[in-house]
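2024-03-11 09:14:02 INFO worker-7 job=invfold-0412 stage=load source=structure_tokens
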């Protein structure tokens, strides 16, 4: 049976499910009710649940009638610590928590992909793993899947997934071959000087002026050290030091993020941040320490899988609805912990905006963003069709 017909038959139910999840958002690592709901629904759909010891999140397994490859479909399920301001009748009922990144849509799409594929299991040559990943927003969820040994359940031959994209219209998908999003590292800098009276700098080592030099010097890493054709961003997003106009403080703290698409540039820039920070402080009689929280690698989409998604989408959507995304984003996505390390993979963009409602264009992580629910059927259909083709 035609994939789009199968999906359209579920569309009203999907919308209700999405609204329920939207109204009941849960923060990273606290997705207990969402996890319970997913487990109940998967069981109802005849999908086996692999108990790998996740605190939240679910790994579902569907074995096709015939032996074959394993496809892992991964979506994230967590919400953000922000207040929803959409005014929708099904807006968040949990104060200060909101599905403003569309993971309610992702969860729903994966649930109905599982439901539809389960009904088609007699035609499948191989297996599908449904990875309902917790805690994407704090970057820890994919690592939890790895730590719990998701690949011991079945070894995936390919990974696919999607993320909503408000810039694209509902009804469309976007495909990006190769590097799609950046690595993300966080750093904290503590500059220590010697505090004292603001009128007597000769008795002090001023960490504020040292920090100002460090901050300025750090700007030369992207502009003077990094190869100009390798995209990179270095943002210092916080700086704190001092309390009074006439007091030189003892220390200053700064925090920033480093983004890159290339492993080599990433390493070189990490080393440059260490070198410049420490030596700049030393040159000015102070001390500085850098502490790192090195995060996810860049997300690099696999060409054959991107082509497979395109071929699947061509069976379902008009040609104009399949967009090629030219530029990578310097945002990040923790799906990159799973592929290519555990097999090749690709993530595509799912349009969820429209021209008639400007509230669909505020963007992700915006408390006013409204998602066009027309995207639910499209995302589900593309994933189901890709799985049917991959395991055909
Ligand atoms: Ni997201």
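2024-03-11 09:14:09 INFO worker-7 stage=emit residues=392
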């Amino acid at each position: 049976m035609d994939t789009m017909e199968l999906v359209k038959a579920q569309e009203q139910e999907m919308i209700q499910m999405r609204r329920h999840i939207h109204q009941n958002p849960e923060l990273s690592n606290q997705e207990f009710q969402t996890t319970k709901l997913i487990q109940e629904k998967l069981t109802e759909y005849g999908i086996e649940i692999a108990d790998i010891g996740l605190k939240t999140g679910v790994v579902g397994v569907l074995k096709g009638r015939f032996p074959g490859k394993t496809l892992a479909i991964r979506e994230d399920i967590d919400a953000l610590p922000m207040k929803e301001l959409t005014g929708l009748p099904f807006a968040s009922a949990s104060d200060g928590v909101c599905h403003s990144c569309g993971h309610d849509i992702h969860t729903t799409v994966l649930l109905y992909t599982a439901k539809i594929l389960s009904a088609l299991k007699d035609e499948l040559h191989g297996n599908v793993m449904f990875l309902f990943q917790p805690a994407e927003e704090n970057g820890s969820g994919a690592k939890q899947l790895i730590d719990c040994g998701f690949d011991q359940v079945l070894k995936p031959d390919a990974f696919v997934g999607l993320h909503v994209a408000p810039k694209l219209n509902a009804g469309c998908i976007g495909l990006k071959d190769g590097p799609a999003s950046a690595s993300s590292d966080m750093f904290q800098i503590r500059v220590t000087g010697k505090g004292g009276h603001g009128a007597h700098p000769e008795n002090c080592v001023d960490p504020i002026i040292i920090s100002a030099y460090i901050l300025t010097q750090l700007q030369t890493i992207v502009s003077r050290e990094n190869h100009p054709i390798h995209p990179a961003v270095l943002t210092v997003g916080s700086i704190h030091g001092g309390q009074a106009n006439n007091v030189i403080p003892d220390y200053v703290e700064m925090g920033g993020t480093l983004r890159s698409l290339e492993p080599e540039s990433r390493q070189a820039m990490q080393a440059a941040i260490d070198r410049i920070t420490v030596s700049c402080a030393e040159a000015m009689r102070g001390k500085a320490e850098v502490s790192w929280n090195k995060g996810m690698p860049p997300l690099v989409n696999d060409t054959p899988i991107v082509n497979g998604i395109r071929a699947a989408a061509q069976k379902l959507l008009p040609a104009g609805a399949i967009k090629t995304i030219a530029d990578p984003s310097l945002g990040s996505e923790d799906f990159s912990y799973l592929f290519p390390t555990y097999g090749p993979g690709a993530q595509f963009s799912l349009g969820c905006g429209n021209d008639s409602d400007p509230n669909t264009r505020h963007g992700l992580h915006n408390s006013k963003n409204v998602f066009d629910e027309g995207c639910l059927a499209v995302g589900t259909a593309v994933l189901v069709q890709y799985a049917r083709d991959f395991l055909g």
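2024-03-11 09:14:09 INFO worker-7 stage=report msg="Residues 101, 103, 136, 163 surround nickel (II) ion (CB under 6 Å)."
2024-03-11 09:14:10 INFO worker-7 job finished
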